[in-house]
Specification:
By secondary structure, the chain is an alpha+beta fold. It contains two helices and four strands, in the order E-H-H-E-E-E. The termini are far apart.
Length: about 90
């Protein structure tokens, strides 16, 4: 099943904090992998219960699947992305 990719406005701020090459790679990964296989990645627990994560090197993409759309909520380094709930 192919999913539509939808970005929360705060994701733009998250991506601006990253080096351009890393941000570009992550966006390419999102458009390629998550558009096709979003339902195969792990579901999170705790304060992020019900959300899913996608791993791209040392960076994580936190997202939710909502009615055939993939809603990208956060993008960040693995040490920092889980510190605040979206």
């Amino acid at each position: 099943m192919a999913y539509n990719i939808v970005y929360k406005k705060s994701v733009q701020r998250d991506l601006k904090k990253l080096p351009k090459a890393v941000a570009g790679r992550i966006l390419d990964d999102i458009e390629d992998e998550l558009a096709r296989n979003a339902d195969t990645y792990p579901i999170l627990k705790g304060p992020f219960a019900g959300l899913r994560r996608y791993r791209s090197g040392d960076y994580r993409v936190i997202y939710a699947i909502v009615e055939g759309d993939v809603l990208i909520l956060r993008v960040g380094h693995r040490k920092e992305v889980y510190k605040k709930a979206p």
